[in-house]
Design goal:
about 160 residues, alpha/beta, 2,3-Dihydroxybiphenyl 1,2-Dioxygenase, domain 1, four-stranded mixed β-sheet, about 25% helix
Length: about 160
């Protein structure tokens, strides 16, 4: 009998679990916007997503339809989310634009950041903010600190 792995293949130590109002539609959006692949989907007796797992890039994301009666509330119901996702891709411009075309709204335009990433923020139609990023420069902690202070200086 083989030993069970404490962290399953394909997973990382931290895996986001998104509660979504419109989970089926979200899975379609994440496929169009980010190239997500459905790994597993379990429907409840009403046909809602009770649990699903999708793969975006090399990372797993779990999600389910909100169940207000169980205190599982989506950002739509809550009026926002305290959590955002950072999605690293080879071409953030292409993925960001595709995500906006699929229905996301721009929160922060694409720009090259002081910390070495080109990135932009968008809100998906389900209330989560995604920072679509491509790492373009290795920046030391000291240089990052210097650049941040320079950027924060009053004009």
């Amino acid at each position: 009998m083989s030993k069970v792995k404490p962290i399953p293949d394909g997973y990382h130590s931290v895996t986001p679990y998104l509660v979504i109002k419109g989970a089926k539609q979200a899975m379609e959006y994440y496929t169009k916007a980010f190239g997500a692949q459905e790994v597993y989907k379990m429907l409840d007796d009403k046909g809602n997503v009770a649990h699903a797992e999708i793969k975006i890039g090399n990372s797993m994301v779990m999600l389910a339809e909100e169940k207000v009666e169980l205190a599982h509330k989506s950002p739509i119901t809550l009026g926002g989310s305290a959590v955002s996702m950072v999605l690293y891709v080879d071409d953030c411009d292409a993925v960001f634009n595709r995500a906006v075309e699929a229905g996301g709204s721009v929160e922060r335009p694409l720009t090259t950041q002081f910390y070495g990433d080109r990135s932009g923020g968008l809100k998906d139609p389900f209330g989560y903010v995604w920072y679509v990023s491509t790492h373009v420069e290795d920046v030391s902690p000291e240089e990052m600190d210097r650049r941040m202070k320079e950027q924060m200086k009053p004009a």
